[in-house]
Structure formats: structure tokens, C-alpha cells
Amino acid sequence: MKLIVKRAGHVEQYDEKKLYASIFAACIAVREPVGVSEVLSERIVTDVNTWIGKKHEVTSNDIRRIASQNLHSYNIEASHLYHKQRVIY
Amino acid sequence: MYKVKHKKPRIFNYDLVVIGSGSGGGVVAHIAARAGKSVAIVEQEKVGGECPNFGCVPTKALLQSAEVYNTIKQADDFGIKVGRVDVDYPAVRDWKSQAVNNTGVEDGQQSYEEDGINVLTGHAHFITPWVINVGGKRVHAKHFVIATGTHDVVPPIKGINDVRYWTYRDAIEQTKVPKRLFVIGGGAIGLEFGHLFQSFGSDVTIAEFAPRLLIREDEEMGELVKAIFESRGSEVLIGTKVTSVKNNTDGSKTVVYEKDGVAHKKVVDEILLAAGKAANTDLGLENAGVVYTQKGIVVNEFMQTSVKHIFATGDVTGMYMFTHTASYQSRIAGNNLLHPKNKISADYTAIPRCVYLSPECAAVGATEFELSQKDITYKVGAVPISMIGRSNTSQEDTGYVKVITDKKGVLLGASIVSPRAGEMIHELTLGIKMKLKASDISNTVHAFPTWSEAVRLACSQISN
Lengths: 89, 464
Fold this sequence. Notes:
heterodimer, A: mainly alpha, 4 helices, B: alpha/beta, FAD/NAD(P)-binding domain, Enolase-like, domain 1, 3 domains, seven-stranded mixed sheet, five-stranded antiparallel sheet, 31% helix
């Protein structure tokens, strides 16, 4: 079980669907087509899952940083927007 | 970098948690434990870290086998008749494993436990500046030392991820000498393995992107090493960029490289990747507020990171990636942890640097390039080793000793290519550390016939 430490300090279980939704929302917001947004979101979730690997507990800041770093190479605008969102991993 | 605002906990599991059990971490852990502190050390791989398990120790053991083999092959020159000499490479590897076991790494955990140090297994990840998670458990500590070392850099070469290439960790475990070996990288690691496999009969090609081998050292060292490799039948490609690699159906590999704007192809059996190392910084350092760059974790002269209670030592700091520097930094961190009001600072003016080829290469202090970049006036004294008696009695005449001083003759740097250069460099290391003049060394009697006489002669060039 992977745990995420949120900004306020509480801990919740890592939910990749939540991450997917955040990335997808950022991609759609910068007018990426739906299909591309889906592909990018899946790819970023895979990248983050690989990064988490054997780590048991990471912070929401970690997820935000790693996801936006990876998204940056595909869509800078979406990466920037995702990074600025408040309610994300 | 995220701003970190966390409350310092009131209760801690340990006074000190060291992340990484190599030279950078092990020394400080023992120092703190022997001073009565509660200490834990975190290791996600083998206890003892890189040097005894995968780095210095196994490579030097393998190179010793190569030296013995080369010496036997030259026996006839010294009036010794030997029969056919065969290499049993699986036995060479067994010898390497024995040398690794002799270091005691297998009992490494026990040596920590005897000092009351808890060994925690797993990956460490900072949650806050005082809390890490290791293997699913949170650990609170007053101080941390990060000594996580480095990993191999994989350059952007087309097809590299589809080809089964060797790193130094694979190279030490081989039971067969490859017929054709392509080494990517002309630094210490690439050259030592190039020399090893060349000695045992591989057809070795070394490709280096920089304009010469051993780019951090003065020009003549890289030039001479290149000439030595070439004289033994290896191909050395400098200023060369490997652009793509691919598997062939017969198990061989094709390497495509670009030199002087022209693309070339080479078919080889194995590829050794030795293109540099990068600091292991994937530790949630952002959550602790620890500043790092691409080079490594930023530390001050006291080995403290940007967060005062977190120290970093060894290769992860990106400075002089040697075992001896790591243990030196670890001692500095140990002192400064225990005596915050009486801190000592690290001094890198006399750190010896060795490459274990045949002959050995060693250097210390400033290079001519560094001094000229800083506009410092300097003097150079240099002699070929062929000038000294030992060269005659050993039938070894390839090499030199060079010393660099300021205009008053105070030693600033030195470089040596010679048999036993790794031993000879320490006289000059001490000289630089103690700010001795070249004349102090040239006026010191050196035994005849030793290789160190070349050090005295090089210094006398300055005195004269």
C-alpha cells in the first residue's frame, strides 16, 4: 500500500485515478484533444507509478513534482497548469 | 524548491540516521555511535556500499590478476622460463569475489550492530526535515547524514535501452573475456576495464566524447595513456560521439559513432557503458528543503546541506568521487555533528586521484589548466621516469613525474604516470597539504633505486 502525505499533514492512500483525473483536466484545459489527453494522462500515471516503485510513503508535493516534470516534456502549458492546481496529488 | 514549514518533533527515534552505508556514511555512523549517540544506518542494497562490493575492491582485484598475467608473459625478458600460460577467467572472478569477501562486507551489518547501530533495510524517503520513511516505517531523527552515492549516467544514444550493455557492475561479474569490447567513456572506470580486458586478450575500442582521455587531468597524462593503449593494440577514439547501438542476429552488437563529422560503424561483442555518474538524489529532498543541483547535494565546508541538521557526504555531493574523499568528508561531518561549537572544515587542496592502469596514473592538487584559468603564475618541473635507476632495473621506461609550484616554489599540484604512481603521489600530497617547497623534497635524500627518485628529480627542476 502506497501512502500520500497531504499538505495539511494527513495521510491517505495513493489513488492513481485521482492523479489521472488531475492530469487529464490540465490537458483538456489547455485544449489538448480528448484522445491525446487520455494518452498523456495514462503515460504520466505510468511514469509516476514507476517512480514510486518501492517507496512506501511519499508526499503530495512529490507526486506534483514528478508528474509535472514528466508532463513538461509532452506539453509545457499543461505541465504548468497542473503544477499550479491546488486540489491534486 | 518548495518552501518547507514543518514543526520539529519533540521525540526522536535516533540522534542520527545515516542514509547509505558506504564510505561516506559508515565512518560518521561509527563516530557518532562511539560517542554515545543513538544511531541507525539505512541501506537499500549491500552493506558497505559501492567501493567494496562493486567498485574499487573488485576492480583492483581483477587488475591484480591482469598484472600477474602480464608479468608472467614478460618473464623471459628477465631470464625466467615459463611454460604455456593460460587464463582461467572464472577463477579470476572467484579471486575477485574472495577479495571482496576479505573486506568483511558480508559481516558489515554485524560490525554496525556491535557498535549499537541499527541497520534499517530499504529506500529512505524524506517526509519532513526530521522524518523519513524506510521500508514502510517512519523514522524520526535529530540529525541526518545523506551518503547515497551515485548511479550510472546513460547518455542519449539511439537504441541504448534495447541493447544489453554492461556497466561496471556487470563487468566485474563476467566469467568470459569478450572477443571485442567497445568502451563508451575514457575516464578512470572505462580505462581500467579497457586495460583489464585488453590484458586478457580482448580487442578493445575506447570512445571518449572529450578531446582527450582523463579530461580532468593535464593534457600529457591523457595523451600518454592514449599512446600506451594504442601501443598495445587498442583503438582509442577521442572527440567521438556514439550515436546509436543495435543488436545483431548473431548476438554481436553494432556501434555507430561520429568522429570529425563522419559516421563510422563497429561490430563488437560487448559494450561497456562508463560515461559518468550522477548523484542519487531521489530521496524526497524537496520535502526536507535540501538544495541540490544536477551535480549533487549542495554542502558548505562543514558538510552541512541547506538544512543545518542534515549533512551530506561522499559522491552524492558531486565533489571528488573517491572512497578516500567520502571517508574524509564523513569524519568532518562526524566532528561537526558532535561538536557544533567547534566545527572543522573540509580542505580539498590535496586530494590524491589515482587511475590503476599499467603504469599507474596519479595526480594531486591543481592542474596547469586550473591555474591558468585562475591567472595564477606557476612553475613546472618534469622528468621522464627513464632517467632513474629503477627504470633500468625494471625495464619500464614509460612515464613521467611533473610537479607544479607557485612562483616561490611552493607545491601546488603534481601528476605522475609510473609504476607505483599511486604510492609515489603521497609524498607530493603531504607536500601540498603542508605547503612545502619543491626544494624541501629535492633536498630530502631518496633511496636508490626507487621510483620516488623521479619525484625528487622533478622537484629539483624547480629548485634549479
